[in-house]
Write a structure and sequence with these properties.
This protein has twelve helices and no strands. It starts with a helix and ends in a 9-residue tail after the last helix. The mean pLDDT is 92. It is an all-alpha fold.
Length: 325
Amino acid sequence: MTILSNLLHATNFSSPFLRTLIPSISLAYGLQGLIAVPSILAQSEKFYDLSGSLTYLSCTALSLYLPTLRARYAASLAGTTKPAWPSLVGALMGRAGCGLNWRQVVLSAAVSIWATRLGTYLFARISADGHDSRFDDIRKSPSKMLGMFFAQATWVSLCLLPVLAINSLPAALLSTPLLLTDILGLLLYTGGISFEVIADRQKSKWVEDKKAKRHSEEFLTGGLWSKSRHPNYFGEATLWTGIATMAGGVLVSNVGQVGMGLAGGIGGRALACAMAAVSPAFVSFLLLKVSGVPLSENKYDKRYGDRKDYQEWKKNTPMFFPKLG
């Protein structure tokens, strides 16, 4: 038997939902493990963030196409006609029998847009800087480096969980009318990613102008950075909240409960809410308590904490949620 057939047999759970969900999560750890090996040997973090984005894209793609892959494999064994691959365009246009539902395509596209933009942005940054300060005390320790890559696999898995859950539901079950959570989720995602992109571009332009000696500012206080000290992080938490809202509205519904093989009671709906909420909750925890805001705040406090202009900016500018005025 081929490697593919062995993998399909090993993950052929009785629940159709788990047949897609578990392999998609497993792929995150497999990819990160593979990329960790050369990174550890080279004592380099250059491809760390880029590999995270590629893992997002790979897991999302697998969750979309794995059900069809299984069906085609089964057809080849039975000697029958193989089903066609899913049509992304057909799904968006609401065509029946195209193998996917429009929500699956929209949520997958939302993640892919975010992952592609962030991955290329961070890879360009580390290529220009030559190193990532987060790895200064880590890159020479194989165990710590391996831990970082598996932590990234966990990050991908938890953040993607609402999307993977939706993609693991049979497309035929998702042919439901537009929900309020669909609209709210799309609005939150659009606003969040726009906020993040604008903030990142403003910072990149500020850094570029500083290198060209077009200004002498030591820290950025203009644009969205005058509304929040970390507008890019706020945008990221918001966009994941949008993704979770759109997915959660389906997962807690009767359709979602049936697709996940749950009874639809309080326990089942609570589990569905948790599967959706874990994504923005984990992102917010990382940004506010671990690697985002704390590292940035400590770095700037050490550099500029004794400066009056820095103290004024910090006093008058919210740390996370932007001020409206």
